[in-house]
Design a protein that fits this description.
This protein has helices at about 20-30, 35-45, 115-125, 150-160, 235-240, 290-300; strands at about 10-15, 20, 45-50, 50, 60, 65-70, 85-90, 90-95, 130-135, 140-150, 165-175, 180-185, 190, 200, 210-215, 220-230, 265-275, 280-285. By secondary structure, it is α+β, with helices and mostly antiparallel strands. The radius of gyration is 22 Å and the shape is elongated.
């Protein structure tokens, strides 16, 4: 596995395997966006065999292409939040987000966010990178969050996410006994009111596919492993409500009992994908948090 000290995280090197234009290689082989190409041309940050070349340049097999990735730190307040950092390389950071913490600052939550904690961590690592979130979780959902350190990694991972090349699995505890051991919910999700955050199943919505597997049946509750094929806002919460098994603790769509758990029992526990630069397969697993473990024990 590549380590940060083994390769400069701010330079991507690629030896051409065929004759093509530089633009074709940057877009098709290295997964840069068209917007990134314009920035490279303006800042002269793409080199061929050591010299700056325009995207229209013809490249021959064996030519060495180097792209410098220059980033400015995002303007987030640094806060030591003792985050659970599971992985860190030259392109990304994986953090296990606890419940009750927002990923990105908002008007109502402008401090004590994952962005604040990651900023503090990056500064202490003596790095200068811009924080870009590849995925986000609701404040009351716990689990794995990917932070990209540069535009290339963010674009590549986001594209893999949208192309269903990232395996995303969750653990949730729902109300009632789910009878089928396995199931798939293929129902479109729609935001009926722009002034509301709530979503509904509606034929006017976007295609949304959720697969589930029963892990354990409890006392009027079921522990499920859920795999997302699409990534709509509130998808698991909406789909579980739709089949009559709302998530325990979910104030918007599920079943609330403060004596059981004080937030929705939903945890993003597995992410598997290819490292954007080395293409090494990476798989991360975040253990079920204490409050969900206690909930399961109460319901056994």
């Amino acid at each position: 596995m590549f380590k940060k000290e083994e390769q400069k995280y701010d330079t991507i090197s690629y030896t051409s395997e065929e004759d093509a234009t530089l633009k074709e290689i940057l877009l098709d082989k290295l997964n840069f966006s068209v917007r990134s190409l314009s920035k490279m041309k303006k800042n002269q940050t793409v080199l061929v065999n050591g010299s700056f070349k325009k995207p229209s340049t013809n490249i021959k097999k064996g030519d060495l292409i180097e792209v410098k990735i220059e980033e400015d730190m995002a303007n987030f307040m640094a806060q030591d939040l003792n985050l659970d950092i599971l992985y860190d390389d030259f392109d990304l950071i994986m953090v296990n987000k606890p419940p009750f913490i927002v990923v990105h600052p908002t008007k109502s939550h402008n401090i004590n966010t994952i962005a604040n904690g990651i900023t503090d961590y990056i500064i202490k690592q003596n790095e200068k990178v811009k924080i870009r979130f590849v995925n986000r979780l609701d404040m009351n959902t716990s689990g794995l969050v990917i932070i990209a350190k540069n535009a290339y990694a963010h674009y590549t991972l986001s594209k893999d996410m949208s192309d269903d090349k990232v395996a995303k699995k969750y653990i949730t505890v729902v109300k009632g006994i789910v009878k089928e051991n396995f199931g798939t919910i293929n129902e479109p999700i729609y935001r009926a009111d722009e002034d509301s955050i709530k979503r509904v199943v509606d034929k006017r919505g976007q295609e949304s596919i959720t697969h589930y597997k029963v892990l354990e049946r409890l006392n009027d509750a079921t522990v499920l492993e859920v795999k997302l094929e699409t990534g709509r806002t509130h998808q698991i919460r909406v789909h579980m409500n739709h089949i009559g098994h709302g998530i325990i603790g979910d104030e918007l769509y599920g079943y609330v009992d403060e004596n059981l758990i004080s937030r929705q029992a939903l945890h993003a526990y597995i992410l598997e994908f290819d490292q954007p630069r080395t293409k090494e397969n990476l798989k991360f697993k975040a253990q079920i948090p204490k409050d969900m473990q206690e909930l399961i024990e109460k319901l056994r």
